[in-house]
Amino acid sequence: MAGRYCYENGLPFSAMVTAECTNVGLNILFKASSEKGLSYYVFVLYMFAISTLLLLPLVFVFRGFSGQLCNYKGVEFSSATLASAISNLTPAFTFILAVIFRMENLALRCSITQAKIMGTIVSISGALVVVFYKGPTIISSSQSTSLSLHSPQGTSETQWVIGGLLLAASNLLFSGWYIVQTQVMKIYPAEIVVVFLYLLCATIISAPVCLIVEGNLSSWILRPDITLVAVIYSGFFGSSFNSVIHTWCLHLKGPVYVSIFKPLSIVIAAAMGVIFLGDALYLGSIIGAIILSIGFYGVIWAKAKEELRQDYCSASLGSSSDDKTPLLDSYKSEDVE
Questions:
Q1: Do the strands 281-282 and 137-139 form a parallel or antiparallel pair, or are they unpaired?
Q2: C-alpha span between 185 and 187 (Å, rounded)
Q3: pTM of the model
Q4: Span 236-264, pLDDT tens digits
Q5: By CB atoms within 10 Å of each CB, which of 27, 203, 278, 295 scores lowest?
């Protein structure tokens, strides 16, 4: 019983937190690489190609292109923190789509539904507090621009707005992809195969597009610096690892569970900024993290209660059918006599 609980709850939780950490690290690496001159067309194609080659042997052992383009072009125009902030739209987008496609029950008088809705709103609010409210400085440090919410030098306000719109479109596409993946996993529950085929198709589609748009051949030669690290990291963790984790959790827990982890990325980004980039820690980050945690655990609690209710109903149906069998047998034996 304890092993099953760990597999169905503890393991998906740990995997999703790890995936969000790698996503934030990927955004930071890409932003730093783009400032070094790495073209995002080169980055996207190499990322998909490395991920496909990485998963190719796993397919034999174990049996969104558009969203990625919008996401990384948005990061190039803006910042990693803005990308994390706008990713908080994903739970709302996913919840709405899940209700539309009847993958989530919307019973407004039910405490579980109320906890899901309120938890989602509270978690998004907490993430926005981290972004828009600084407050007094708790830990002073050297200021870094890599995770700044404001426009970095060389970025116009128009580019900043376009970047934000592209990031919003990216999260809407990812929400739709979560819905599609969940349905696919019901039909064909083989996570690695599904992700491999997705990455293979993405590589085939992105290759001609990126090669045509990025016609400068010198851009495709990666220098042994942060750009090479970003591409390799994205291939191993950004697409292959995270896609497998997300697909597995979508199969096990559903799209709303996966999307609710997105608001955590803004807190992770702020923490990484303090630890690795020398950013200052503000009171707003702490308050926002607390608010986000309350909303986050509200949704997790609701999902756990929902699963317990479903298990109880299944157990009740099973026990009732078991009870009927001996009763019918007794009737038959009496008729024989």
A1: antiparallel
A2: 5
A3: 0.72
A4: 887 788 889 989 999 888 888 888 888 77
A5: 278
